[in-house]
Amino acid sequence: MVICHSSLKYVLLFLYMRRLVFLGFVFAFLFGLFMTPVLSAKPTDIPEEDGIYDEPGHPGVKVRVFVHRERPAKPSTPPTTVCKDDLDSNSFVHKEAWKLPLTWTYNLNPSSVPASVGSGDLQIIAENGFNGWESASGNKVNFIEGPTTTVSRQAYDYVNVVTWGRTSGSALGVTYIRYNSTGAVLDVDTIMNTKIAWSWSNSNTCGLSSTYDAEDIMTHELGHWLGLTDEYDAASYQNATMYGYGAKGEVKKVTLTTGDSAGAFAIYNP
Questions:
Q1: Does residue 46 lie within any of the structural domains?
Q2: What are 121-150's pLDDT values in tens digits?
Q3: Is residue 159 part of a domain?
Q4: CA 217 vs CA 119, 159, 221: distances in Å
Q5: Lowest CB count within 10 Å: 16, 42, 107, 156, which one?
């Protein structure tokens, strides 16, 4: 059989294109084989339980989780309203394994704030808390408010969020501190529980006995940002901002005790 020159050209072109298509399928298969696990991988959620965890996919990064809960009531004793008082505490609040850099930016989520608190008040509530701790550090830490965010969950995303969001159980607030082996903080998130009844006393002597005061609980959470731990010895720390339990009607945590300030100062002025 005789094949003309033009026909041979088309046959060769067909074979060449088929080869390209085959090589394309091979490349796509290999790309999917090696790259898909990286692109589609989702980090394992960090448990919402007090403790220290490894950050999935980031060797050397630890996550310290603090869960702030209501103080258990004594048997047969009805809960009482806890008001702000002038009782100080000299009990030194201890540190954890990290410290903030000298300048740290935080991001607020106003859209998450319960109506009973008011989204327009989040800025001043957070500012009050940060200013108190900034002063306690000996002004060695400078907190700067960054752009607002809609993030309402914890994540290793370099957005240091203060927000209301979903937390499990009856936790009042949960704070996640991500830090490396040198103790340098990488990412911080504080999630206030949307399922809890909230209000804001706005510096009044007592909060509402049926709700938790937003500034009271938030000021406690922000103490973890600087590197302070929870203290559970009621005999020594029940008046401290970093006392590990919160209570309805309580507003005393908005004012740092001598022991709270001493603990923060020691971290940044060794």
A1: no
A2: 999 999 999 999 999 999 999 999 999 999
A3: yes
A4: 16, 21, 6
A5: 42
